[in-house]
Specification:
The protein is of the alpha/beta class. It is 45% helix and 12% strand. It contains 14 helices and 11 strands. It has a 7-stranded mixed sheet with strand order 1-7-6-5-4-2-3, sandwiched between helices. It has a 4-stranded antiparallel sheet with strand order 8-9-11-10. The protein is globular and about 80 Å long. It starts with a helix and ends with a helix. The structure holds pyridoxal-5'-phosphate.
Length: 480
């Protein structure tokens, strides 16, 4: 071996040792998930000590860096990938999706153009086709893989903005919004905040949307939408929800699409997690009429259980989608044969191959595996509601139609119930058996449980319900 060969061999061994060590650390973390306290044990202030300090002058061995990073971060990690995390709407990572994500990092492909990675172009194309098939959406619809649902809504609404203005003879990509016909935006009162953020980024500020009244479960009232739309004229976009972020309720999508057609409005559906109901024959009636909408948002990092970050934007009118997102420059080489350029469908240029883990999750689960995962979470949510709702002083305030359960702990007056509910939530988060957040539903404080993780079992639900009820008994006992 000459000197160069020796150095190459050494560097190969160092990389192997580094990655082997990293796999070990990752595995020991994953194996700790079922039993570790779910909430973080250290706050940012303490972590600043262990992860902070000045930038070193000469650097540090790679394997030492990984060891120090894993040790220092450990107490500040939230076991949100584990089976008893019910916070927000989260989901973990299927092992196959995690493995595919590791490969994605090792490959380090730029998924912008097919010439940069034919493999990732083909993976995206296939994952997109599988998703349309699973959701029962038109196979001619276009798909973009974004960082999350907020950006997916940005994409869907950019396509909407393009199309509704084009119908009024206004090319928004060329002329911008100055002097453009006014766009009417109608949102359900309960719609997710990220839809408003997406609209804001499109130049349609917070005061543009009009709120449409909802029912007790948070579902848009079609007659209110009809009245709001028919009271004006000109371009209009309606945003509905498949899966309310609190209650899990579904807007009446078929009726909304029908009204939108009649009134010439674009119908965008935010289904960040709820769209997955379409993948289950049992739950699909919740989204009946889904395919009649014009654009859809969903997340893969929530209910498909792939690692962050991965959202999906789907648009029925592929031309409007393309027009809103594509760019061109002399060096942005397009291949013959219409091969997919991932960046033509999203706001980013250079981008991660985030569809790879979607491809792997779908390939592994198959159609019935996806349905089983989604239905399984809903069954567990129903079990949660049953276990908690039967207990004295505990009220399940929503109809549990999907994977979301809203729980309220009752005192003598509404104000007492708010206080007690917040106290149960606070103690639960500190206790560590499981983790869930608080929310406000119809002006009342609730504990919000979302069952979205592939690995949660009946035993996890029972253990968590016991912990919640034990804390409730303590809180109640302590109340004078
Ligand atoms: C989570 C969620 C979003 C936002 O999703 P991100 O992936 O965090 O951008 C939007 N809408 C609904 C209904 C959600 O549940």
């Amino acid at each position: 071996m000459d000197e160069t060969e020796r150095r190459t061999e050494l560097s190969r061994l160092i990389t192997r040792q580094l990655l082997d060590h990293t796999v070990e650390r990752a595995l020991s973390y994953l194996e700790s998930l079922p039993e570790r306290p779910v909430g973080a044990r250290s706050g940012v202030a303490e972590l600043r000590e262990s992860l902070g300090g000045p930038l070193s002058e000469g650097g540090e061995e790679a394997v030492e860096v990984v060891r120090r990073l894993a040790d220092a971060a450990e107490p500040g990690l939230v076991a949100s990938a584990g089976p008893r995390y019910f916070g927000f709407v989260t989901g973990g990572s299927l092992p196959v999706a995690l493995a595919a994500d590791w490969l994605t990092s090792a490959w380090d492909q730029n998924a912008a153009l097919s010439v940069m990675s034919p493999a990732l172009s083909a993976v995206e194309e296939t994952a997109a086709r599988w998703l349309l098939d699973l959701f029962g959406l038109p196979e001619t619809a276009s798909v973009g893989f974004t960082t999350g649902a907020q950006m997916a809504s940005f994409v869907g609404l950019a396509a909407a903005r393009h199309a509704v203005l084009a119908r009024s003879g206004w090319e928004v990509e060329r002329r911008g919004l100055h002097g453009a016909p006014e766009i009417r935006i109608l949102l359900a009162e309960e719609s997710h905040v990220t839809v408003r953020v997406a609209l804001r980024m499109l130049g349609l500020g917070d005061e543009t949307p009009r709120a449409v009244a909802v029912d007790a479960q948070g579902r848009m009232r079609p007659e209110a939408l009809e009245a709001a739309l028919s009271s004006g004229t000109g371009p209009a976009i309606v945003c509905s929800e498949a899966g309310n972020v609190n209650s899990g309720a579904f807007d009446p999508l078929a009726e909304i699409s029908e009204i939108c057609r009649r009134q010439g409005a674009w119908h965008h559906v935010d289904g960040a997690f709820g769209l997955w109901a379409a993948a289950s024959p049992r739950l699909a009636p919740l989204v009946s009429g889904l395919a009649w909408a014009d654009s859809w948002t969903t997340d893969a990092h929530k209910w498909l259980n792939v690692p962050y970050d991965c959202g999906v934007a789907i648009v029925a009118d592929a031309e409007a989608h393309h027009a809103a997102m594509t760019s061109s420059a002399s060096y942005l080489i397009r291949q013959e044969g219409g091969e997919r350029g991932g960046f033509d469908w999203v706001p980013e240029a250079s981008r991660r191959g985030r569809a790879v883990s979607v491809w792997a999750a779908l390939a592994h689960l198959g159609r019935s595996g996806v349905a089983a995962m989604v239905e399984g979470c809903c069954d567990l949510a129903a079990r949660f509601a049953e276990r908690l709702g039967g207990h004295d002083g505990v009220e399940i305030v929503n109809d549990v139609v999907l994977n979301q359960v809203l729980v309220r702990f009752l005192g003598d007056a509404e104000g007492d119930s708010d206080r007690l509910t917040d106290e149960v939530t606070r103690r639960l988060q500190a206790e560590g058996t499981c983790w869930a957040g608080g929310s406000t539903w119809k002006g009342r404080r609730v504990l919000r449980l979302s069952v979205s993780n592939w690995s949660t079992t009946e035993e996890d639900i029972d253990r968590s319900a016991d912990a919640i009820l034990g804390i409730w008994d303590q809180v109640r006992g302590a109340t004078p």
